[in-house]
Please model this.
Amino acid sequence: MSDRFTVLVTGGAGYIGSHAVLALHDAGWPVAVIDNLVTGFRWAVPDDVPFYEGNIADAALIAKIVTEQNIGAVMHFAGSVVVPESVENPLKYYDNNSARSRSLIEAVIANKVPHFIFSSTAATYGIPEVSPVREDTPQVPINPYGMSKLMTEHMLRDVSAAHDMNFCALRYFNVAGADPQARSGQSTIGATHLLKVAVEAALGKRDSVAIFGTDYDTADGTGVRDYIHVSDLAAAHVLALDALIADPTQSHFLNCGYGRGFSVLEVLDAVDRVTNLKINRKMEGRRAGDPDSLISDNGAIMDRFPWKPQYADLDQIVTHALAWERKLGDIQQEQSA
Ligand code: UD1
Model:
């Protein structure tokens, strides 16, 4: 890498942001974090990383961090991510994900930060007509969460055309697993993600796992998703940074997934296999808004970046998620002691 500026990670105390901090750190990048600690945890950020507790829409604070830390790129993870909550409270999502992103982008432009990497989502596609989903598949979100992220994609496209800033919007499929060294992992209280729920059940933190729908148009009738290991996803962000620096005239919208899917039953089978247990399964009806199958076409990211996924094996994803869930129990005990 040519420059040695610092990368500002918003939401760096959260699930994906904390893994991006580790990936940047491991790649030798100086990093700073801003997080409001509403859903993130201070302990998720390494002690030697400068940490600012605050709001990403606070223009004066962003200006101060850019100057103090010599910020040359922003990786923006801060936001709200719970789809059903976005349906009940859309204005929270349009505030946290769209309006505050707008303020952050304004501060980035005002302070002449040249590169921006954005945490987008497959939820911007809604229920896609085709699978695998390509980047040019029409984006028709079916919930405020997806729409709030799509609005930020549009802002970035327009702002980069008008100002000296390029960007990469990465559209994540189903993020799962944890840092292979168990330095971070999914720690959200009350998380609803399938694998998180399943490892909690395996460790006796829940009685059972609900299977939402067994009549989908898939091989075994349960929903199919493209589960991507959070550390492979974090690695893609570091490569995105390299690409933005290498060609400041180029911006990117890229899917992040492995291009293959597993059903709910296959995920639960993997948890049973790895733990040597049989977690209780409860067949339930479909959850509103769930597509049958959501798999990425990852041809574009594979072409543009030298991205070599290392943890696509489902059992490995489960193993890492499980190791983290065990460690999280210890951390939570320490914190409450
Ligand atoms: C997740 C993301 C969403 C992203 C999408 C991309 C979150 C909260 N959601 O949604 O932002 O756009 O991936 O693919 O991060 N299931 C069960 N039982 C459970 C939980 C889930 O059967 O207890 C099923 C669901 O019906 C679905 C699959 O498991 O078929 C995955 O669900 P979940 O982990 O909640 O993620 P998505 O809804 O796919």
Remarks:
- The mean pLDDT is 96.
- The chain has two domains: 6-176+229-256, 194-225+259-296+311-336.
- The pocket of uridine-diphosphate-N-acetylglucosamine is lined by residues 81-83, 121-123, 173-174, 192-194, 197, 209-212, 223, 225, 264, 287, 290, 294 (CB under 6 Å).
- DSSP finds ten helices and 14 strands in the chain.
